[in-house]
Amino acid sequence: MELLAPAGNWDAFMAALKNGADAVYIGGKSYSARQSAENFDLPQIESAVDYAHLHNKKVYVTVNTLIDNDEFAAALDYLYALEQRQVDAIIIQDIGLAAACHRVLPKLRLHASTQMTVHNEGGAAFIKKQGFKRIVLARELANTDIKTVHEQYPDVELEVFVHGALCFSYSGQCLFSSMVGGRSGNRGRCAQPCRLAYQLKSRSGKNNLDPARHGRYLLSPADLCLIEYLPELKEAGVCSLKIEGRMKRPEYVAVVSRAYREALDLLEDSGQRPEPEIKENLLKVFNRNFSSGYFFGAGADFLSTRRPNNRGVFVGRVVEQKPDLMVKIKLTDAIGSGDGLVVWVGKGKNPVVIVEEMQIDGQRVNEATAGDIVSLQLEERVFPGDRVFKTHDEELLSEAQHSIRDEKAHKIYVDAAVSVGLGEPLRLILCDDEGNRGEAQTKTAAQMAEKYALDEEVLRDKLGRMGNTDFVLRNITIQGEGGLMLPFSDLNEVRRLALERLIEKRLLKHAKPVTSINYFNQEKQALLDDPRPDYNKTSPLLTVAVSSVEQARLALKNGADQVLLGLEGMGSRKRPSRSELKEMLALNQGKNIPQVIPVLPRISLPQDRYSYHRMVDEDFSALMVGNWGDLHWGLEQGFKILTDYSLNVFNIYSLKFLSGLGISSVCLSPELNFKQLHSFKGITGVEMIIHGELQLMEAQYCVLGATLGGDREKCTAPCSKDTFYLQDAKSYQFPAVVDADCRFHVFNSRTLCMIEDLARIISLRPHSLRIEARLMQDDQLSQTVKTYRQAINILLAEGEPDLNRYKNELAALGQPFTKCHYYRGVI
Fold first, then answer.
1. Does 70 lie in the same domain as 213?
2. What is the Cα–Cα distance from 231 to 243, expressed in whole angstroms?
3. 3-state SS string over 255-296?
4. Do the Cβ atoms of 135 and 126 come closer than 8 Å?
5. Which of 66, 135, 318, 543 would bridge with 650, disulfide CB 3.0–4.6 Å?
6. Residue 825 lies in a domain
7. How large is the C-alpha radius of gyration of the chain?
8. Which run of H or of E encompasses 428?
9. Is the full-model pTM beyond 0.85?
10. 160 within a domain of the structure (yes/no)
11. Do 611 and 480 belong together in one domain?
12. Residue pLDDT, tens place only, 517-549
C-alpha cells in the first residue's frame, strides 16, 4: 500500500519524503481546497516533482475546488502546465473540469477527490467510466463498504484517509461555512464551523442537551487514526493510505509519516501490528482524541465535544497551588524542558505554560517522570485535581526537525568507474543501485603528471564533490595507466556531465507522455467556442421539494407544476409506502410533465439495509438523483434523470457534461451569484432554488441518537418525539433533523427568499424554479407555493406584481430571510 502524506509548504514536503512517504499531495496557489496553506507556485511544483522522482516517489497536485466560468480557461492552462512538469496525478472535484481535461489533456492522470462524495459501487463505476484512475473515497465508508466497492471494481484504485482531521459532514455536501460566513469549503476556504460551540435544543424545551454533561462542540469529530488497522485496510482492497494535514506544520508531517512508515514496514515484514509506542507519538504531536472514524461504524469516541483543538496527552493532576501561583503537579507521564502544558480548569480560560524551569523537592531539573511531583510557575489560578495535558513534546518535535534538516538522510549512493590512458580523454561512469548510468568524458587528453598524479585519493576528492545534490560517491574503480594528470577543471566538468546524465536516466523512468501545445490550444479553443445552450423558450416550472406524500398533495393543490418527493423520510423518519407512491404515480398519467418526481437520497452506502432503487424501478419513468452512483444506475435503467444541487454544478462545462449524458434538468449550485449565473449565457435545463431552507450538512453520525438516544444499539429515537435545532454563540438556530436511515441533517438558520428578485431570475430563463419545503409546516407550504404561483403568473403575463407585499406575507410565516449567495457570492 502506498503511504500518501500532505505538504502545505516545502519543509512539509521534505518532512514527508524523508520520513517514509511514498507520495506527497500538494496544492498550488489556486484551485486548491486548502487555500490558507502556504502552497506551491509552479517553479516549486517543478522542483518538488524532480526531487520526488529522483527518489522514486510521486507528487499529486490538488485542483479540487469548483471552477467558475470565468476561471475555466486559466484552470485548463494551469493543468497543462502541471502536465508539462510531469506531476503524477491531479486530484479533481469539478466534473466539468474533469470532462474538459479528458478532452484537451487526454494523457493526464486524474484522481477523483473526496469532495466528489463517491461512496458506493455505482459511484465507482461512474467515475471509472469518466476516465479517473483513482477514487479518494468518502471518509464515511466502513471497511465492509470499501471491500464491496473494491470487489465490484478491482481495477479502480481506492485511496482512503487513515489519519487526521475528519469533517462532520460528508465532504462535498457541506454548505455551512459558505452560507454562514461566505467562505466556501467547495472553493477551498472552509472556516470550520463544525469546530465551534453549539447547544442542542428542542422546540418543546423538554429535551435540551446539557452542555456540562455532553460538551459544547457537538459537531467536532475526534481525529482519525487507523494505524492499528492496516491489515484490515489491505484486506479491503485499499491501495493508498492518505494522511490529512496540508495545514499542519512540517514536524507533524514528519512524525505521522514516520509512524505509518514503521507500521507499514512491520506489516510487510512480519504481518504484525505496531507497538503502542508508535501510536503514543501520534498522540503527542496533535490529537483531538483518536477514533477509528467510520471504519467499524462510528462509536462513542467519534466526537471531541469537550475541546475542538489539540488536547495533547494527559500527564498528571494539580496537587496544590500556592498564593504566588506556584503549582505542584503529580505526573503520570514524563515531561521535560521546552514542553508545552495546559491545565484544564472547571471554568474560565485554561492556563498554558512552556516548561522553562521546574523543580523536584526544591532542586531544579530538566526532566521528570511518572510518579514525580514537580513545581512550576503559572500565571493563572488552578485548583487541586485539575488535569494537566502536554500539548507540545519538545523532544519529539526536535527529532522531527532534525529529520527534515538532516543533510545525510535520503542520499543516493553511486559508484564511479574511471578509465584513463596517456593521450586519451578520461572516461567516467556513475552508476546507482538501480543500474542507471551517467557517462561522460573529458574534452582534453591525459598527460604525464609533472606534479600531482591522478591517483585514487585525488580522483575520489574531485569526483566526490557532488555539491548540494542528493548523490554520494561510494566506491571508485580506476582502470588505466598511473602517473597521469588532467586539469582539475576538466575533472569537475566530467563529474557534472556524468551526474547530469545519471539524473536524466533516473527521471526518465518516471517520464510520462505529455500533450503537445498545438493539440492543447486547438482543443481548448474548440471547447471554449462550443455553442452555449440556448435560452429556455418555455415558461419556467414551479417545483417544490417535499418530504412526504401529504406535502406533495398540498404543493400541487396550491399551484406547483411539479413536486420533488424525497424518499428518505426527512424529519418524520417515515418513508412513503409502496401504496402511497402508486397513488402519486397515478398523478403522472396522461401528463406531458410528470407532476411527481421521486428523489433518491444523496447518500446510499453499500451496506445500507434499505434499497431505494426497489421503490422506483418498476413504476416511475423519471427521478431525481443526488450522487454519482444513483446517476449511473438511473442512466443504465433508462430513467429520465434530474440532478440535485448536491452534484455541485458550478459552471457551464459541468452543465454541458450532464446534458450530454441526457440529463433533462440540472439544479445549479446555490453558491453561484447573479454575475456568475449571467456568465452561463443560456441555462436551458437548469433548475434554480428561489425559496426555503437549504441543507447545510448531511452527516452519517447522528448527534441526537448518540446523546439522547440511550443505548447506541437500540436508539430510543428522540428525533420522533420532538423537533430540534443547533444554536450557535450568536443565538442563530439551525434546524437539525434525522431521516429514516438515521442520517443527521442540518439546515440553514435563515430562509432563502428571492420573491423580490423573481423578475430578474425569470429573465435568466431557467427550466424550473424550486421551493425547498421539506421543513415547512402545512400552512407555510400552502401559502408559500400559492404566493410564488401568483407572482410567477403575473410576471409571465407581463404584469407587475406587488413583490414587496408578497415578501411581507411570506415573512409572517416563519423565520428571517436571506438571499444566500445571489448577491454576495463566495470566496
1. no
2. 17
3. HHHHHHHHHHHHHHHHCCCCCHHHHHHHHHHCCCCEECCCCC
4. no
5. 66
6. no
7. 31
8. strand 425-432
9. yes
10. yes
11. no
12. 999 999 999 999 987 777 777 899 999 999 999
